[in-house]
Amino acid sequence: MQRWNGLFFLLAALALAACHTVEGIGKDIQAGGKAVEKAAK
């Protein structure tokens, strides 16, 4: 039972880390798009 709990928490931690990584990439892409839009004006 303890093995399953440890595995569950490990997978949950990895899922949360991946969500923050994807969110960060999205913000970077959005900032790049704003810079291109500003340069085009």
Furnish the topology, listing elements before pairings.
Layout: H1 2-40
User: Low-confidence runs (pLDDT<50, min 5 residues)?
Assistant: none
End-to-end CA span: 61 Å
Radius of gyration, taken over Cα atoms and rounded to an integer in Å: 18 Å
- Helix percentage: over 70%
Q: How many domains?
A: 1
By helix and strand content, what is the structural category? mainly alpha
Q: In percent terms, what proportion of residues is strand?
A: under 5%
List the helices and strands in order: H
Mean pLDDT: 82
Strand count: 0
Written overview of the protein:
The protein has 41 residues and is mainly α. The protein has one domain. The chain has one helix and no strands. The protein is rod-shaped, with a radius of gyration of 18 Å. The termini are far apart.
